Amino acid sequence: MRLSSGGCQDKGLCCSGRDPSCVSKGWRPDRTYGTCYCDQACTSTLDCCHDYQHACPAEHCVVSEWSQWSGCTEACKAAVRMRSREVLQKPRNGGKPCPPVQEFAGCAEYWVRHRQCRKSLVPALITTGGYGNARKKRDISINSDIMGYCVEFQLTSLTAGCLRGLQPHTQWMQYLREGHKVCVECQPPALAAGHQHCSGRWRE
What sequence ranges are listed for the domain SMB (predicted)? Predict the structure, then answer.
């Protein structure tokens, strides 16, 4: 038996959601002939026309690459920066939905118009805005010794390696638990050259 009569392709039908008007007449996948549908919901109600998958293939959302990070929204205080991406193709026929198109992260800038911030309290952020709770440090004079600072983190996930610290300098990691808060100190030797903040690696 050839399943070629009627269907979605012959009528040029492909509809999103549940659309009772998106109807045709032809063979169904269960080899019964009669009324069949060409809407996205037919895959759940099992009343698709036999050629629905071929005539209406799933098209996943497609987005562009991330833009460059913007600058901090405000200088000399805890602020946020943003990056974005565009939707190049919207999902159709049950394709994967679009991921977030905006992302925010915490930041702190210590320079204004090529000069150092001169406020008595300057926040120090070294993590994303959603997870970092900045503590304040003293204002640093150009002529004084640079001081370290501390940032509080909450552990949201742990890799297996974090729980198997066998070396003397990693044994403390065995006490880490999800949900715990830890204080990470940025000591002067770790400060980036010419800047008042630490640099490091992290995984988004």
Answer: 10-61
> 87 in a domain, yes or no?
no
- Rounded to whole angstroms, how far apart are CA atoms 151 and 182? 8
Q: Which residues of 50-77 are buried (b: 16+ CB within 10 A; e: fewer)?
A: bbbeebbeeeebeeeeeeeeeebeebbb
Place of tokens 């943003």: 82
User: Which tens digits make up the pLDDT trace of 158-170?
Assistant: 777 776 666 666 6
* E strand or H helix at 183: strand 181-186
Contacts of 145 (CB under 8 A, 6+ apart): 188
- pLDDT > 80? residue 139: no
The tokens describing 16, both together, are 């999103």
| Token pair listed for 155 | 């552990």
pLDDT digits (tens, 9 = 90+) for 65-119: 999 988 887 777 667 888 999 999 998 887 889 999 998 877 766 665 656 665 4
The answer to whether 94 and 43 are in contact (CB under 8 A) is yes
The C-alpha atoms of residue 178 and residue 161 are separated, in whole angstroms, by: 14
Name the strand (E) or helix (H) holding 89: strand 87-89
| Cα→Cα distances 52→3, 10, 42, 46, 57, Å | 12, 11, 9, 11, 8
Q: How many domains does the chain have?
A: 2
Distances (CA, A) of 181 to 31, 108, 134: 60, 21, 13
Evaluated on CA atoms 162, 165, 167, 173, the torsion sign reads positive
Assess if residue 23 is contained within a domain.
yes
